[in-house]
Hints:
This protein has 2 domains: 2-192, Histidine kinase-like ATPase, C-terminal domain (Heat Shock Protein 90), CATH 3.30.565.10; 207-351, Ribosomal Protein S5, domain 2. 34% of the residues lie in helices and 23% in strands. It contains 12 helices and 15 strands. The strands form 3 sheets. The protein has an 8-stranded mixed beta sheet, with helices on one face. A hairpin with a 5-residue loop joins strand 1 (34-40) and strand 2 (46-51). Helix 1 (2-12) packs across helix 5. The N and C termini lie far apart (57 Å). Ligand 1 is lined by residues 22, 26-27, 30, 51, 53-56, 64, 70-72, 86-92, 136.
Amino acid sequence: PLLINQIAAGEVIERPASVVKELLENSLDAGARVIQVELEQAGIKRIQVRDDGDGIGHEDLILAVSPHATSKISSLEDLEAVASLGFRGEALPSIASVARLELISRAQGAEHGWRLRTDGTDTLEAPEPAAHPVGTSVEVRDLFYRIPARRKFLRTERTELGHIEQLIRRMALARADVAFRVQHNGRELFDLRADAEASSLSVATAPSPATETSPLLAGACGERLETLLGAAFVQQALRIDEQAEGLRLSGWVARPAFSRSQADLQFFFVNGRMVRDKLVSHAVRQAFQDVLHHARHPAYVLDLRLDPRQVDVNVHPAKQEVRFREGRQVHDFLFRSLHRRLAEGATPSHEQ
Ligand code: ADP
Ligand code: MG
């Protein structure tokens, strides 16, 4: 099983940022309102994620690190309509197979927490009692310590940290209702307060259906958007909120006119999940091309909401690819929405 887990891990855990991603997704799925991340050596030495979510009960702790055990779906039907960020039950066992993992968690209503340690070998020791508030702390140490070949593929600390920062930016953009605090080697990287307006939307753990407002749009031009993407983006960005046929597109799009490299200013979420998708980028590029006569570096933060049954997220273990049931319809909707907004043009969002 160790070898099998390591192979599975190869698809899910490429670098420290992939660990952070999986842990943050778990915290969000658990309904966390405050998430704290501590990193050492860009996460290679240590990653700790603490949340105030639902916690894991004693009886489920061992399951949590067992392959293919997920509490999030229980039938094939659920898989058709995945609403949580996780659903494959692969992340924790994969991480445990390539690093030292410690899980401390206390469930709602439990008198204290429980600690479980694994070093990826097949023997698991019984959980022991531990002091912990309701919620979960996961600590991952010495990533790839037993797989030198993988360790060699890691880039410099600076590059790995860059990946993590970009990841946090994405997750924090999608969830303005959650506070994120991130430290690296004891120094603060992010301290993002929860946006009161976004919180009041009471976004469920599960990404909401098309009728709900995306937390992206709460606290219009909010502090978080500015902190994460810069004042120039916020000043130029046009607010989008379009709805048609069970699809809703919300967010911000800007004409690319600032000097800063735009390569990292393209964020697209589907039901709150960051995706990279050819159909999406094609629709966006086409809209820019049509209106502005060029499609260099479009800058956008967009969240598409639709019925989870209309989109398959189980395409790749890293869950960054999606397949739309009605690809054509989605493409046309995106194109039309962006086209209209870009063409209306220059009412900067802060004047609305
Ligand atoms: P998945 O997220 O696909 O279900 P994971 O391997 O990421 O699989 O996690 C396994 C299980 O452990 C989850 O289904 C969940 O029940 C539990 N779990 C993991 N992290 C947390 C957390 N931070 N809070 C509460 N439960 C968690
Ligand atoms: Mg998960």
